[in-house]
């Protein structure tokens, strides 16, 4: 394709599609974890007419099932295993089968969660079924329903994004961040609606099903859009040249693909320079990219991603959901955790992810990135020393609500920014024909970080 014939993202349709795909892939997980009062009510053996409440107006006994910890851990281990398999076997199964099959499986399993709202069941069997659903359907990247299917879905989508300009990775991650805000607002509306418990819970769990259907439609629409076909073409002999031509064309315009200038033109210039001069050891006619060669190029960025999610999942939501207001009983106490834990986290996480649309700092060659990532480990003791009444070992050093809110602001925005930054930097560290493999590998390390954090949450909770 000639440089002058490079397609444009007409009406931002490809960008909007990836944004909605990000929103749809994370809606189920966010609706799952923000419904903690509903699950704890059911597991406490409360009357079924009140156990479905999301408001937690009734008193819930101590969490003998450790629901927060188990649902986080069991939703991450299958995610880790299937993401690893997807990294190596992604070329064996057609991409359309992987993505559409995963979306359909997630939809069916989340419908089961909604149906269980109407089914009377003792706490033991309900816990078992819920954990199986978590294993099969939960997916995260930030702290995604179905871990097994979610891993395949996310690995495939990040693989596609690896072949696209970095702006589209940012849009996808911003959509995922918005999913958390949407779920938290839905929870607050459910608490304030005053409708009966079962109707509230049923409507709450049906909502993400609509998001999955919208994601399916968006994915199907990509094959009809010239801009998407241009970048997602599997002809490796033409794709790098086409991408280089498109980026050069974009540098000459004030608007890129119909999207305002972001990231900066300097980043695009750097991409072009890297693609013009291949590494000395790179083959002139690259064949099938090697997973191990790609890993050697991105290992430090991948390690940073692991550490970011290890910190985040070790305390969110296992520890942060236990923090209560120090102001005493009242409306604020009832809404404190939904607003200051879930809603605030998701708003600031989304803001952090969106910041990479305007700048990417530090860059992939800077040693400052690992330092910033390691500093986030300070959030673990800070949250553990906040106002958590259910403790027997550690003291409460930060009882006021303002401490928790401040910690959560910094915790969430740093999570969103560093996740988006590492996911955008990784494809820039490899050759164009290796970017799909880099995207799949980063998804595996994302899952590894989530699993490590979920495992550590048991230890940190025991230390309280």
Commentary on this structure:
This protein has 464 residues and is mainly alpha-helical. It has a single domain, classed as Growth Hormone, Chain: A (Up-down Bundle). 67% of the residues lie in helices and 1% in strands. The protein contains 18 helices and two strands. Helix 13 (291-315) packs parallel to helix 18. InterPro entries: ENT1/ENT2, Eqnu_transpt, MFS_trans_sf. It catalyses: hypoxanthine(out) = hypoxanthine(in); guanine(out) = guanine(in); cytidine(in) = cytidine(out); thymidine(in) = thymidine(out).
Which spans of ≥5 residues are poorly predicted at pLDDT below 50? Answer: 56-61, 139-146, 235-278
The largest pleated sheet is described as: 2 strands, antiparallel
Tally of individual domains: 1
Helix share, percent: 55-70%
* Rg (C-alpha, Å): 22 Å
CATH topology: Growth Hormone, Chain: A
End-to-end distance = 62 Å
CATH structural class = Mainly Alpha
Outline type:
globular
- Secondary-structure element pattern, one letter each: HHHHHHHHHHHEEHHHHHHH
Count of beta strands: 2
Tell me the strand percentage band: under 5%
How would you state the average pLDDT, rounded?
A: 77
Structural class: mainly alpha
Note the total helix count.
18
Pfam families: Nucleoside_tran
GO biological process, one term: thymine transport
Subcellular location: Apical cell membrane; Basolateral cell membrane
Membrane topology: Multi-pass membrane protein
């Amino acid at each position: 394709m000639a440089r002058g014939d490079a397609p444009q993202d007409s009406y931002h349709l490809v960008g909007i599609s990836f944004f909605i795909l990000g929103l749809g892939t994370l809606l189920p997980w966010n609706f799952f974890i923000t419904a903690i009062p509903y699950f704890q009510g059911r597991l406490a053996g409360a009357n079924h007419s009140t156990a479905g409440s999301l408001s937690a107006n009734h008193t819930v006994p101590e969490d003998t099932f450790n629901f927060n910890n188990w649902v986080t851990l069991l939703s991450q281990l299958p995610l880790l295993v299937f993401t690893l398999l997807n990294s190596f076997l992604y070329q064996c199964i057609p991409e359309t089968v992987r993505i559409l099959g995963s979306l359909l499986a997630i939809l069916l399993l989340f419908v089961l969660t909604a149906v269980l709202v109407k089914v009377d069941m003792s706490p033991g069997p309900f816990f078992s079924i819920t954990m199986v659903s978590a294993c099969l359907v939960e997916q995260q990247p930030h702290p995604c329903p179905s871990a097994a299917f979610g891993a395949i879905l996310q690995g495939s989508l990040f693989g596609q994004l690896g072949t696209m300009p970095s702006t589209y990775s940012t849009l996808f991650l911003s959509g995922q961040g918005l999913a958390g805000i949407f779920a938290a607002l839905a929870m607050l509306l459910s608490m304030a609606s005053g409708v009966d418990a079962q109707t509230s819970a049923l409507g709450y769990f049906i909502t993400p099903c609509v998001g999955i259907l919208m994601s399916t439609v968006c994915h199907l629409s990509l094959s009809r859009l010239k801009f998407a076909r241009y970048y997602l073409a599997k002809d490796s002999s033409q794709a790098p040249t086409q991408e280089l031509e498109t980026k050069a064309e974009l540098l000459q315009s004030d608007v890129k693909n119909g999207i305002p200038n972001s990231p900066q033109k300097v980043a695009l210039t750097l991409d072009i320079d890297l693609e013009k001069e291949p590494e000395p050891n790179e083959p002139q006619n690259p064949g099938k990219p090697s997973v191990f060669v790609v890993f050697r190029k991105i290992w430090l960025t991948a390690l940073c991603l692991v550490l970011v999610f290890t910190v985040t999942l070790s305390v969110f939501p296992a520890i942060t959901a236990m923090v209560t207001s120090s102001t005493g009983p009242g409306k604020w106490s009832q809404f404190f955790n939904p607003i200051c834990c879930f809603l605030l986290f998701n708003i600031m996480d989304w803001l952090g992810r969106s910041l990479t649309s305007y700048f990417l700092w530090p860059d992939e060659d800077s040693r400052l990135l690992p330092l910033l990532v390691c500093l986030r480990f300070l959030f673990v003791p800070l949250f553990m020393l906040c106002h958590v009444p259910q403790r027997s070992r550690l003291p409460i050093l930060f009882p006021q609500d303002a401490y928790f809110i401040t910690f959560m602001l910094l915790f969430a925005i740093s999570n969103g920014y560093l996740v988006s930054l590492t996911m955008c930097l990784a494809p820039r560290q490899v050759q164009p024909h290796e970017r799909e493999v880099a995207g799949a590998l980063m998804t595996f390390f994302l899952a590894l970080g989530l699993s490590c954090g979920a495992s550590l949450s048991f230890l940190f909770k025991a230390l309280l």
